[in-house]
């Protein structure tokens, strides 16, 4: 066996894309703002996963830096959204 | 051996990613979705990064993959807690299937801090008065 088989990489990318679509459905559907924040965080995680699989598939290790940046930004975004919602939307 | 480990990690990590996406569509309220999204996806990304580390098998890539995993495991619980707290304080309703809401009445609605005493009568908690 020489590297991860191409079929596995392609199937993994397909399945992750389907997961992204399912999560996007929740992002559109809501119903509350916090549901959307959760969906956004999951989308960032899934995109980091896609980056990882793509790095394996194309033998390009430098793409991993993108996943690091993505994980950082997603965390800051989720915390900022939550703080904003807590201040602005409290009943 | 490394290729087998990388393939296995990619397959399992992808399956966990799909599971968390199915969970976030199927679960009934924001708090349960939060559990699914933070736990399953953390393990899924960790497995994918294990796959990356096993596939490239060089020090620099392994350290970067490890950085992603450590950072994810540090931030995912914090983010989940902050989001869950914001959801509860902004009055997102819990699912109809929820039997016990132990936080009911525990938050001071003005300051958003824990008030220190709970309304034990509607939670059914065990208090000193039960023993007497």
Short description:
Chain A is an all-alpha fold. Chain A is 82% helix and 0% strand.
Task: Give your account of this protein's structure.
With 91 residues, chain A is an all-alpha fold. Chain A is built from 3 helices and no strands. Chain A starts with 5 loop residues before the first helix and ends with a helix. In chain A, 40% of the residues are buried. The mean pLDDT of chain A is 89. With 132 residues, chain B is mainly alpha-helical. Chain B has a domain at 2-89. Chain B is elongated, with a radius of gyration of 21 Å. Chains A and B meet through helix 1, helix 2 and helix 3 of A and helix 1, helix 2 and helix 3 of B.
Task: Please specify the SSE layout and strand pairing.
The complex is a heterodimer of chains A (91) and B (132).
Chain A: H1 6-29, H2 33-58, H3 64-88
Chain B: H1 2-26, H2 30-56, H3 59-89, H4 120-123, H5 128-131
Helix pairs in contact in B: 1-2, 2-3
* Mean pLDDT figure of chain A: 89
State the name of the first-level CATH class of chain A.
Mainly Alpha
Structural class label of chain A: mainly alpha
Rg of chain A = 16 Å
State the share of residues found in helices of chain A, binned by percent: over 70%
Question: Which properties best describe this structure?
Answer:
heterodimer; A: 91 residues; mainly alpha; Helix Hairpins; 3 helices; B: 132 residues; 5 helices; elongated
């Amino acid at each position: 066996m020489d590297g991860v088989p191409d079929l596995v990489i392609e199937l993994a990318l397909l399945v992750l894309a389907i997961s992204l679509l399912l999560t996007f459905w929740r992002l559109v559907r809501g119903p509350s703002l916090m549901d959307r924040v959760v969906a956004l965080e999951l989308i960032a995680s899934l995109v980091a996963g896609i980056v990882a699989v793509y790095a394996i598939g194309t033998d390009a290790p430098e793409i991993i830096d993108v996943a690091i940046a993505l994980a950082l930004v997603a965390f800051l975004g989720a915390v900022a959204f939550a703080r904003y919602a807590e201040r602005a939307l409290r009943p | 051996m490394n290729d087998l480990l990388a393939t296995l990690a990619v397959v399992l990590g992808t399956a966990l990613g799909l599971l968390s996406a199915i969970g976030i569509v199927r679960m009934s309220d924001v708090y349960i979705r939060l559990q699914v999204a933070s736990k399953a996806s953390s393990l899924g990304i960790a497995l994918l990064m294990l796959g990356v580390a096993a596939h490239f098998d060089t020090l620099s890539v392994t350290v970067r993959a490890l950085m992603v995993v450590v950072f994810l495991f540090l931030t995912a619980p914090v983010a989940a807690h902050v989001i869950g707290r914001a959801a509860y304080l902004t009055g997102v309703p819990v699912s109809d299937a929820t039997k016990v809401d132990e936080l009911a009445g525990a938050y001071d609605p003005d300051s958003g801090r824990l008030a220190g005493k709970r309304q034990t009568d509607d939670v059914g908690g065990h208090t000193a008065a039960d023993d007497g």
